[in-house]
Structures are given as C-alpha cells and as structure tokens.
Write a structure and sequence with these properties.
The complex is a heterodimer of chains A (573) and B (181). Chain A has 17 helices and two strands. Chain A has helices spanning 19-50, 59-92, 101-124, 141-170, 180-210, 219-230, 232-253, 260-273, 290-297, 299-325, 334-337, 344-367, 381-409, 417-443, 466-499, 513-516, 542-567, and strands at residues 7-9, 16-18. The mean pLDDT of chain A is 91. The termini of chain B are far apart. The interface between A and B is large, with 116 and 90 residues.
C-alpha cells in the first residue's frame, strides 16, 4: 500500500511530525476553530438576550440560538480540537506513523457531515430542543442522526489513536513508558469510547422514536443514559485539558512531572470514577434511590475529585520546581512572579488551572452534593459552573496550546503578538466573570434556559430580587469582555494560519520512515538529589502548597456556607 | 520537556514522593471523605432531603386524582379572565396533587404554615422543573413518575412556582403562585 510514511522534524521544538498525521491535526484544528467562531457568534445572541436590559432576540430565535450555541461549543468545537490533540499525543509525541490515515479521514468527514446535519436540523427551526434534547420533547430526525454520525466519526478517530499506540509499541518508537501527556490522552480516549457508547445507546432509539418506529421513550431512562453521554463528554475535556496543562508546563518551562506515579494514578482514578459523575444531573429526579445518588454523585467517595485536586497541585508544583531549578528560588512566590506572564501559552494555562479549580471545581462539587443540588438544580448556576469548567478550563487551555501549535504545526509565525499577550487575560477573566455572576444569579433562583425572567404580562409571574437582575447585567458586561478575548483569539489564529509569515526551514526535505525517525531519546535518569537545595519546609514546591491550602480553605468555606443556606429552606422529606 | 517525553526513570513507579505531594494527597483524601459523609449525615440529622418515594402513573390517572382533590377543596379561582385557575386549600397531612403541563402549573395551592403536606409532582407531557421562589427549592418533574415530597412551609407569604426545565417555546410563561397562610 502506498502509505505516505514521511516525517519531518520541527526545527524549533524538535518534535517529529508524521505528515499524514500532521495534515489531519491541522484540519481538525481548523474545523474546530470554525465551530468556535459559530458558537461564539451565537453566544452573543444568548447573552444579549439574557441580559434583560438588552433582551435582544425574540423567544423562538433565542431558544434556537441557545440550542445551536450549546451544540457547537460543547460538542463540535471541543471534540474536533480533541481529535487533533489525540493525534498529536500519539503520532507526534511517540514519534510514530499514524495508523490508517484513510480511516482517520473517514472519521473526519463523518464528523463534518454529522455536525452540519445537526446544525441544519436546528436551523430548520423545529429542533430547538437544547443540547440535552430531553425526550419526550422531540426534534427532527436529522438532529439525532447528525449527532450519531458525528459520534461514529469521533469513535473512528479514537480507534485510530489506539491503533497508533499499537504501531508505536510494535515499531519501538519510544523507550519505556509513554509520556505523561500521552497517558492523559489515553485516559481521554477511553472516556470518549464510554461516552460515545452511552450516546449511541440513547440516541439510536431516540432517532427511531423520532421516525415513528418506536412508540415511547421514558423520560427518566433518557436522562439517565443521556447524561452518560452528556456529562462524560465533558470528562473527556477534563482529561484532555489536564494533559495539556502538563504539556504546557513541559513546553514553556521544561517542567518534569513531580512524580509520574502520582500523576498517572490520578489519571487512572479518572478512568475508574469520573463517568459516574453523570448522576449529578439526576439528584432532583424521582425514581432513583438516595443510595444510588450518593454513591454515584460522590464518584464513589469523591475519588475523581481527589484526582483533580492532585493535578491541581502537581501541575503548578512542577512549574515551581522547574522555576526554582532555574534559580528563582527566593521566598515562596519568586517562581510565580518571574513566570512569563506575557507568554499567552503560559498565561492561558495558568488561568485555566486557576479558574477551573476555584470556580469550576468548587461549584461542581457543591452542586453535585445530593441535598445541596436542591437549591441550585436547573438554575443558571449550572451554566455558571460549566462555563468555568468548559470555557475557562478547557477552551482556555486549548487556546493557550494553539499559540504553541501555530509555529510548530502550521509553520507560521503568530501575528499580532502584542495582542496575543492580552488575549488569555481578556477571555479568561471575562469568562470567569460570566461564570461567577451566573452562579450568583443561580443562587438567587434565576432559571437557566429562560427567555424572560421579568415574566412580562404574566399574572402569576415572579419578581426576582434586584440583586438577581444586577447579576444578570454583570454577566452581560463580563461576556462582552470575553467576546473581545474570543474575537482576538479567532483573529490571531486565523490570521496567523492563513497570512502569518511562513517559517522556512533551510534544507527541509521529506524523509522516509526509517531515516525520518531520529535516534531514540535516551532515558537519562535524574542524578540523585537533583532537587537538593530548592524549596522550603522540606518541600520542593512550598509556594504551590500555600496556594493549594488557600484553595482548600475556599472550598471548605463555600461548601459549608451552602449547607447553612440549605438548612434555612423549608423542611422536606 | 519531559511530560511530553517518556519518563526518564524506566521504573518510575518506584520513585519516592516529595513531601508536598504526600501531605496534599492525605489532606485532599480526608476532605473528600468528609464531603462524602456529609450526605448520609444530612439524611439522618438534616431536614432537607428529597424523598425516595415515587410511583409510576399515567397522566389520566394523575389528572383524575387532581380533579377529585380540586372538587373537594377548591376555595376560589384566580387568573386572567378566560384562563381562571382553581385555588385549593387542602387539609394538613393530605395528599396534594400539582400538575405540570405545557405551559401551566395546576391548580394553585394554599397551604398552612408549620403544617406538613404530601405534595405530588408529575408532568402530563414533557419534562418540567418545579422551582419554588424565593425559597429556591428545585425539583425535576417527569411525565409518568408521581414524585411525592413531604413539605413543611415554615413562613407565611405568597410564593411563586416557575418552570426551570426548558419545555418549549412558552417555557418562560409557565409560572404560578403558592400561598402559605
């Protein structure tokens, strides 16, 4: 078979790219950014409507735009980017040819077809059923068919990824174990397979139901299985963006994982326990027992939360160690003060860690507690939480990594560099505001997915307190800041990819598979006592430890404040 | 650049941990266990727990029970002309039926402060979200599942029930009152 087995070595990073894989990464990343653009434009309609002072769209268009925003952001933008990450973490990091590029292209086109078909169904106007598409509210059959085709394409991509791991092992392209980032990508891919299976189990019958071939879809069954897809797909994001945090720390600082054992075990905990988190969505539902809810919602005793808390320490910890080894060893925080805050790859990753942990993580655990769910279920607190996790956690991490990938993968220089410096701050801080104010409004009872909280003309309407209106207004203002950040990202990436100055490599030539792969990197063990003389209190990363304690303090405080709030609510049993 | 390279120690699982990681893992694990035990604890000592009580029912059966309750305990009607909704004042301790349907809560309830009621929630069609404001109690309402909550209103006043599960084009108009005397 005339497989293209050509490789090139990136002159700036030393990474080895398999050209067919590189092309797939580029196209998946480009398509991802297109969907981000679409989702971003739709986001303007959503926020400017929920900001009641503006109240831009009419109800029918609002619900339609909100449906499309959710799907394009949560599914299409993120999964396309993640497929690029999977190919990077396998083919590039393992210096190995991509298994079956033709199958990978088949997957790619299926994903495109599915995404377009799903968007078509929403544009038709009869499928404004939101991302969740809860039966028995029905959408046009192309809504479900589009998602199924997309999922099949993504599944093919996962198996191309797994196949590439097998190829790498068989062709001995690396020594010892795969890198930590690849390990994290494997975690993401395993969760993805589980996610897609759940999606198939529920969406195929729902498609048949929408065609009239099945009479009844039970609403509780739908919600239970659908969330195995809906929430687990967000767990793919967590595994993927945590991997990119490690990658970012390695690329920017040359940071080593503090301990391979701890970080890998934490990823393993994700595989074992993260998926049962989908039960979080069912805490206020009838027909499920408290035992079931407590076991599942706690990820079997919060073992997956433990994993995230571990990553939250070890990624900044590894950065601290790397910085201290470079000589920034004074006091607790010199390593952080002297960090490259003007480098968007670093700034994006660091804000992603910070906001994901403080806003996304703490709020997620709070609202995922069986009884506490009662005071936030289906309020705008919920989108507040997942904008902190998906928008500032995942999307910001993906944005940060783009600044590294454009020169390496697209061989173009970053355009508008002075603007790029500010982009992660605008997007991260704006989006953190969006998340925070939505949570604030949710605590005051403002519902999610709601066109008019003023209940204009409704004799039974409810008058929300002024604070809730203020929160929604502040959310709108923060969203404007985030839009500027998002628009800059699109300007910089699209500009750089198509118009950026080409990075020419003198003497560049395609090389065959044997010659293309250079000598295997030698596994040089660390000299004993490599970390001697850095840190304080017998810790190599005392500054990170202090930050972690601040995090824990906020977590404990916020958690019990909500129990206190719950205890004032009407008794019910 | 070693998080993106194979581990430099072949036998990486035997490398010792630094103190910072070990201490943090222990702290985090303890906190996770505390959070876990808070949920069973609240089931025993807390007053706000969702019941595990739910029954399968058809919309017709449920509506019949609701109409029977309305016939027995109706005190007045409220709402715009032509769209009157009955207000019922059922006795304390009784079974109170609340219907959720596109796009209405039916009927309006009038309860007594300090008394307990077995409030049933069920949808006649799609999913709805029971959201009692400003108390901020939020419960998912399914079609086909009669969900029973034993509720004790603690303070008098006029409350609102809004729908917070998206249920189609007029979702935002689905609102009602609840009176506590």
């Amino acid at each position: 078979m005339a497989t293209n087995r050509n490789f090139r070595t990136c002159p700036s990073s030393g990474l080895v790219f398999h050209e067919p894989a590189e092309k797939l990464m580029r196209w998946n990343a480009v398509v991802a950014v297109v969907f981000l653009l679409v989702g971003g434009l739709l986001a303007i309609g959503v926020t400017l409507t929920r900001w009641q002072a503006v109240h831009l769209l009419d109800p029918s268009l609002f619900y339609q735009v909100l449906t499309a925003h959710g799907l394009n952001m949560l599914v299409f933008w993120i999964i396309f980017f993640e497929i690029a990450v999977l190919y990077f973490a396998s083919s590039t990091l393992l210096r190995c040819r991509l298994a079956t590029p033709k199958m990978a292209w088949l997957g790619f086109w299926l994903m495109i077809l599915g995404a377009l078909m799903n968007n078509y169904s929403v544009i038709r106007g009869d499928s404004s059923v939101m991302f969740t598409s809860y039966a028995p509210m029905g959408a046009h059959p192309t809504f479900y068919l589009g998602l199924i085709l997309f999922a099949v394409g993504a599944l093919i991509a996962c198996f191309v990824f797994f196949g590439t791991l097998v190829v790498a092992r068989a062709e001995r392209t690396y020594v010892g174990s795969v890198s930590l980032v690849t390990f994290g990508a494997i975690t993401a891919a395993i969760i993805a397979v589980f996610t897609i299976a759940s999606g198939a189990i529920i969406l195929i019958p729902t498609l048949l139901w929408s065609l009239g071939l099945i009479e009844h879809i039970d609403s509780l069954m739908y919600r239970t299985i659908w969330w195995g897809f809906g929430h687990s797909s967000q767990q793919i994001n967590v595994a993927a963006h945590v991997s990119l945090w490690y990658a970012g720390a390695a690329i920017v600082f040359g940071a080593k994982p503090m301990s391979e054992k701890v970080s890998r075990t934490a990823f393993l905990l994700y595989i074992l326990f993260l998926q049962i988190a989908s039960a979080h969505h069912l805490l206020a539902d009838p027909g499920l027992t408290s035992n079931w809810k407590i076991f599942n919602t706690s990820y079997a005793m919060y073992l997956a939360v433990l994993a995230s808390m571990v990553h939250g320490l070890t990624v900044p910890g590894s950065i601290e160690v790397a910085q201290r080894m470079k000589g920034y060893n004074n006091g607790l925080f010199e390593w952080l003060r002297k960090a490259p805050w003007g480098n968007p790859a670093f700034a994006g990753i660091f804000l992603s860690i910070l906001i994901f942990g403080f806003l996304g993580g703490i709020s997620g655990v709070m609202m995922g507690t069986e009884q506490l769910n009662l005071i936030i279920h289906n309020t705008i607190y919920v989108p507040g939480h997942f904008h902190a996790t998906v928008a500032t956690g995942t999307t910001l991490a993906f944005m940060a990594v783009t600044y590294f990938l454009i020169p390496v993968l697209f061989r173009r220089k970053i355009m508008f560099e002075p603007l790029a410096k500010y982009q992660p701050y605008l997007f991260g801080i704006g989006m953190a505001g969006v998340a925070l104010f939505m949570m604030g409004a949710g605590t005051l009872g403002v519902p999610r997915r709601h066109w008019d909280i003023s209940f204009a003309g409704n004799v039974f309407g409810y008058e929300f307190p002024g604070a809730a209106w203020l929160m929604m207004g502040l959310m709108g203002v923060s969203a404007l800041v985030a839009f500027v950040g998002g628009a800059l990202y699109l300007l910089i990436t699209v500009g750089s990819v198509f118009l950026g100055q080409k990075i020419e490599t003198p003497g560049f030539k395609h090389v065959g598979v044997r010659e293309g792969v250079g000598a295997l990197p030698a596994a040089a063990p660390d000299p004993k006592g490599a970390h001697a003389g850095i840190g304080a209190w017998g810790m190599v990363a005392p500054g990170t430890f202090v930050l972690a304690l601040v995090f824990l303090g906020s977590f404990v405080l916020y958690y019990f404040v909500n129990w206190k709030y719950l205890s004032t609510v009407w008794p019910l049993k | 650049m070693s998080a993106i390279l194979p581990p430099s120690e072949r036998v990486w699982w035997k490398q010792p941990l630094d103190r910072v990681e070990l201490i943090w893992i222990v702290i985090a694990l303890v906190w996770c266990l505390i959070m876990f035990f808070m949920m069973p604890y609240w089931h025993v000592y807390g007053k706000q727990n969702l019941a595990n009580e739910a029954f399968r029912a058809t919309p017709a059966e449920y509506l019949k029970k609701t109409e029977a309750m309305i016939a027995q305990y109706k005190v007045r009607e409220e709402g715009a002309e032509g769209q009157k909704v009955p207000v019922v004042a059922p006795p304390a301790g009784s079974d109170v039926y609340l219907v959720a349907r596109l796009w209405q809560w039916y009927p309006i309830l009038e309860l007594e402060s300090g008394k307990s009621y077995r409030i049933h929630l069920m949808s006649m069609d799609w999913l709805h979200g029971f959201s009692l404001q400003p108390e901020n109690i939020n419960v998912e309402v399914h079609p086909g599942y009669d969900h029973v909550l034993t509720v004790t209103p603690t303070s008098k006043g006029t409350y609102s029930i809004i729908c917070n599960e998206y249920c189609g084009i007029n979702h935002h108009t689905m609102a009602s009152k609840l009176y506590v005397k």
